[in-house]
Amino acid sequence: MRIALFAHPGGRAFGAVEGPAGTDDPEALTIAELEGVPFSGIRYTGERWALADVELLPPILPSKVVGVGRNYAAHASELGNEVPSAPLLFLKPPTSIIGPGAPIRLPIDSKQVEHEAELAIVIGGRGARQVSREDALKSIFGYTCANDVTARDQQRSDVQFTRAKGYDSFCPLGPWIETDFDYADAGVQALVNDVVKQDGRTKDMIFDVPTLVSYVSHVMTLLPGDVILTGTPAGVGPIVAGDAVSVRIEGLGTLTNPVANRA
Description:
The chain is mainly beta.
C-alpha cells in the first residue's frame, strides 16, 4: 500500500494512493483519504481525489531523521574514506524535511552542494527500542525515497556532519510510503536534469535494513514515524540552481525537487 500525506481544499490528511502498480504518473492515480494517522489502522473516510488535483506533502513528519554514512563501499571509496566497522550515524533536523516538488534551497556559504539518493525506512506505530535484528522488521511501517542533500565543502571543513546536512530543505522525502517493499535488492538512482548520476542497488549496503534498525534502536529510542536514511551509492555530485534532481527507487517511485538559490 502507498501512503501519502497530502493537502486538499479542506485541509490535509493521510491517504492511500490507488491505481496501476509500478506507475507514479499523477494522471493515472487517485488518493483515498484516511482517518487519522495510518499507524493505528487503515480507515477510509470515503473522500477521493485525482492525485493531480492535490499537493503531495512530505509523507511523514518524524521527530528525528537518523542518517547512516558510508554504507556503500564504493561511495566511501569515492570520498577517500574507509569502510566503517559499525554503522556511522548522524542526525538531520526535522526542519530539513521537504516534500515532492518543493525547492532545495542552496545556502549562500557553500560552494559544493551535492545530491545523495537513499532508501529511507519509516518506523511504525510500535516504535523501536533495543530491538534485535531478528525482530527489527516488525518495527518498520514502510519505505520511501530520500535525498540526503549535503554541503560537501562544509562536511570536509567541519569534520562532523551537522551543518553540512542540516540546512532547511536538505532532506526531501517522498513521494509516498510503500508498506509492501522488498528492500533486499532494489535499484537506487539519482538523476540530475534526467541524466543518471547514481545507479546502485540496496544489496550492496554494508549494513542491511534489519541491522540498521536494530543498531540505531540500541542507541536511541525510535518513535513512530521516525526515519532512517540507509546510505547512498557511488556517484554523488553537485547540484546548482536551475537543476531538477530526482531520486528513483525501484518498486517505490520517484521523488523530484527543483534546486534554487536561497533568498
